[in-house]
Design a protein that fits this description.
Largest sheet: 6 strands, mixed
Number of strands: 9
Structural class: alpha+beta
Number of domains: 3
Helix content: 25-40%
Order of helices and strands: HEHHEEHHHEHEEEEE
Number of helices: 7
Radius of gyration: 23 Å
Strand content: 25-35%
């Protein structure tokens, strides 16, 4: 059980039982006493009010009115919210944009400094534009949920990304590329990458990518993506 899941289970156990001993919590989450005590301290730092009572019949109690005061969203989760809002705005389907921006700003403000740095690094790779009216979107599919977490690692650590790709003709190929940017042209989403095998940039429609795997052993350098020349791919025969 990872840290987040373990701490969530501790909170659930305390809410459910009212009072729990450290031993009961260690059994509930399958961790050592030291780990549970460290989790309790972390939960208090996050804003949960947890009382300790010593002696027979004592234990740990969670204040029923206690709430978490710091955001626990991951960088990927916040990024997913940001790009979803950006996509809706680009498609002109975001009627309450000011409220959405204000809410996202509050979430970002509550993030730890290291997460904010990672978030901004990923946002630097994001570009939003308008889709060509000539683009055929008749075969639009769904995007693999595993893609965004893979992007987070690949973009932040500058690692190669492997995946299976189905082109416009339905042919499947296996690619390994250097992720450089994400391009949103609602309703199409693209990974823009440098393809070493072709020594050039390629646009890969995200709904055609499957089985993404980060190659932890292969790193790359950031390249300038020439969006000023062609931000809107069209007739993507090999993309």
């Amino acid at each position: 059980m990872d840290i987040r899941s373990r701490q969530e289970e501790i909170v659930r156990t305390l809410r459910r039982h009212g009072t729990s001993t450290v031993d009961e919590l260690t059994n509930a989450v399958g961790a050592s006493r030291r780990t549970v005590l460290r989790d309790i301290s972390s939960l208090r730092d996050q804003g949960f009010v947890i009382h300790s009572e010593c002696g027979r019949g004592g234990g740990l109690q969670l204040d029923p009115q206690s709430v978490q005061t710091t955001a626990r969203l991951s960088v990927t989760e916040v990024f997913a919210l940001l790009i979803s809002v950006a996509a809706m705005r680009a498609a002109r389907t975001l009627p309450f944009s000011d409220l959405a921006d204000a809410g996202l700003a509050k979430i970002e403000k509550a993030l730890p400094a290291d997460k904010v740095k990672d978030l901004r690094s990923i946002l630097d790779c994001l570009h939003v534009g308008q889709l060509s009216p000539k683009q055929d979107i008749g075969d639009l599919g769904s995007i693999d949920p595993a893609l965004l977490p893979a992007f987070e690692t690949a973009f932040l650590q500058r690692r190669h990304l492997r995946f299976s790709y189905r082109d416009a003709k339905g042919m499947i190929s296996h690619r390994e590329v250097e992720p450089q940017a994400m391009l949103i042209l609602p309703p199409l989403w693209y990974l823009v990458a440098w393809d070493p095998a072709r020594n050039d940039f390629r646009h890969f429609r995200m709904d055609r990518i499957s089985e993404p795997i980060v190659n932890e052993e292969q790193s790359f350098r950031r390249r300038h993506v020439p969006f000023e020349n062609d931000v809107c791919p069209f007739n993507d025969i090999n993309r």
